[in-house]
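User: quick one, sequence for these tokens?
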């Protein structure tokens, strides 16, 4: 998994456990793709301070994932739903196929 995608997923899973400041900086960096300078300038902090905060917060997120494993399980569940949807395409009964696809979509929305 690409490093950036990894932290977006971890942020999605554990972002509410971070401080507002940590979460906002991580979202600006990973989700909005802003540079360190673009993040630091309006906050009145240096690029190095932003980088340091990002590195510390990455460690926090990795620690949560190591202990809880929610992001890994979430990814595995999405893959499983994908395989179910793919297998459903081989079902001749259109009503049953539509029912399975509806439940797969519902399950993915719950994730």
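Assistant:
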């Amino acid at each position: 998994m690409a490093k950036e995608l990894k932290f977006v997923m971890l942020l999605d899973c554990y972002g509410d456990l971070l401080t507002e400041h940590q979460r906002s900086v991580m979202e600006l960096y990973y989700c909005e793709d802003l540079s360190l300078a673009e993040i630091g300038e309006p906050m009145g902090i240096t690029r190095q301070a932003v980088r340091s905060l990002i590195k510390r917060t990455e460690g926090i997120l990795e620690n949560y994932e190591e202990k809880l494993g929610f992001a890994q399980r979430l990814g595995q569940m999405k893959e499983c739903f994908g395989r179910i949807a793919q297998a459903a395409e081989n079902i001749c009964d259109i009503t049953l196929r539509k029912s399975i696809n509806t439940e797969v979509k519902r399950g993915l929305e719950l994730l």
